[in-house]
Request: fold
Amino acid sequence: MTKVLVATEKPFAKEAVDQIKTIIEKAGYDFALLEKYTDKAELLAAVKDATAMIVRSDDVTAEVVKAAKALKIVVRAGAGYDNLDLEACSANDVVAMNTPGQNSNAVAELVFGMLISMVRNAYNGNAGTELRGKKIGIHAYGNVGLYVAKIAKGMGMEVYAFDPFVSADTIKADGVTPVDSVEELYATCQYVSLHIPANDKTKNSINYNLLNKMPQGAVLINTARKEVINEADMIKLMQDRADFAYISDITPDNKADFAPFTGRYFFTPKKMGAQTAEANINAGVAAANQIVDFIKNGNTKFKVN
Ligand code: 3PG
Reply:
């Protein structure tokens, strides 16, 4: 028996689940679904006899990997794989993959959805501001950054980017201005959109000194991970600067501390960037196809461990 488990605390759209199921069953495997689980024990029980698993932001800890005695592959249907314990996967001969790029447009659209709401005062009747002609900085020019750049240019914004792993020529070719340092990006742009992964180097790296370089009327848009923000610094900065606003696609740990900054923050209650039918279908179908291609042909193209 080859069981492919879709384990998603935050469920995919129904169309995505249907398409994943079709791919898995067409390949001759058994399809299993665990959605909206509230207890880790449910996940531990479901993975027991799974050969393959598709997850989203679900934590695949060493405990989960250990419980999944038959597991050969886990695919994070999405970009960031900070929720996978890669060491545990490798130690147990489990291939870990992601599906880069598949949900990027959805995240980029949310950047502007949230930003427009902020600069229009959440449509409360007071005059807001426009984005046209303003400077937006893209911190990390990967798949999401690229879509953010395209949309921003369509809106008539000046677009800047910083990414030590992408050449200046590549960035320039998209009509985006590359900058030499992260400090320069923040000092140049009134709006900064964050797209760095969460890892040991980036966690807590967005700190007071960096944020304080931003011009008047600054807005930081975080659709990356809450862990990359130094939250205590963010709170102090918002106390010190009444012009500073923070938007985050996930609620910070200390949400109550932001209460005094009414109108200058917005947090989604659940990570919503990739929560569209299209992104669910793209990432879910890619994950299912990657599993079939791995089991049948040994293809490890998207392996991250
Ligand atoms: C990603 O890393 O792909 C996004 O953060 C989406 O996460 P989600 O699948 O939990 O919505």
